[in-house]
């Protein structure tokens, strides 16, 4: 849900500006509108990436401690994680936006650039590249672990089915053997009774 909200806000705020910019970009020649444009271009776009990081962390917790996760997971805790990464992101980006807002436009190389490229490179590395490595590097590992868990569950299930089938077959075999024994005993009893009857007739 948080990712959808971020995407809606980013779409409402950013895409109209990018659509209007080729028609008339004069409004971006002043510091404040340019700072707002850069906020939507840099900060909210990175927020979507960090929300993917929150989702990835949520999946890892669900895999590593499933019992605790099912007992304690809630929308409030997910929202708290989103709030934490939002504060962390703004703590890195907002000083750069404030500096850009107070920097003359001729020193900023237009609204797409900044007068502090080194600081911006550090910010991008911390809030973009590092989360991307964590997300896209750990998802394959998580997928392999889930495959292994599924294989183990299938192995246990097949073993249970095999045991249940063996038990049913054993019960059927025992029942069949018991029925054969009763049948033979009945035949023997009838033969003995027939012999007794014949013996009594011949005695008479």
Q: What is the subunit arrangement here? A: single chain
Coarse morphology? elongated
In terms of structural class, how would the helical and strand content be classed?
mainly alpha
Number of helices: 5
What share of the residues lie within helices?
A: over 70%
Strand content: under 5%
Number of domains: 1
Mean of the pLDDT scores? 75
Number of strands: 0
Biggest sheet character: none
Q: Indicate the radius of gyration in whole angstroms.
A: 38 Å
- The ordered H/E elements are HHHHH
Low-confidence stretches: none
* End-to-end gap: 102 Å
Features:
204 residues; 85% helix; elongated
Structure write-up:
With about 200 residues, the protein is mainly α. It has one domain (about 1-150). It is built from 5 helices and no strands. The chain has helices at about 1-20, 30-65, 65-70, 75-100, 115-204. Helix 2 (about 30-65) runs parallel beside helix 5 (about 115-204). The radius of gyration is 38 Å and the shape is elongated. The mean pLDDT is about 75. Keywords: Membrane, Transmembrane, Transmembrane helix. Its main location: membrane. InterPro entries: GPCR_Rhodpsn_7TM.
List the helices and strands and how they pair.
Layout: H1 2-20, H2 31-64, H3 66-72, H4 75-101, H5 117-203
Helix pairs in contact: 1-2, 2-3, 2-4, 2-5, 4-5
């Amino acid at each position: 849900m948080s990712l959808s909200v971020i995407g809606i806000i980013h779409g409402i705020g950013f895409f109209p500006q990018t659509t209007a910019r080729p028609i008339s970009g004069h409004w971006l020649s002043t510091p404040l509108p340019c700072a707002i444009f850069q906020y939507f271009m840099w900060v909210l776009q990175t927020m979507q990436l960090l929300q993917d990081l929150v989702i990835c962390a949520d999946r890892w917790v669900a895999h590593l401690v499933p019992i605790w996760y099912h007992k304690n997971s809630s929308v409030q805790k997910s929202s708290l994680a989103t709030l934490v990464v939002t504060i962390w992101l703004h703590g890195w980006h907002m000083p750069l936006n404030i500096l850009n807002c107070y920097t003359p436009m001729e020193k900023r190389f237009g609204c797409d650039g900044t007068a502090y490229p080194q600081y911006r490179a550090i910010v991008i590395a911390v809030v973009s590249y590092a989360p991307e490595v964590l997300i896209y590097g750990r998802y394959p590992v998580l997928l392999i672990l889930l495959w292994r868990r599924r294989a183990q569950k299938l192995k246990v299930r097949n073993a249970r089915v095999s045991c249940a089938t063996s038990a049913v077959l054993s019960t059927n075999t025992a029942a069949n053997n018991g029925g054969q024994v009763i049948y033979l005993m009945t035949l023997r009893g009838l033969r003995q009774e027939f012999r007794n009857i014949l013996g009594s007739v011949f005695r008479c």
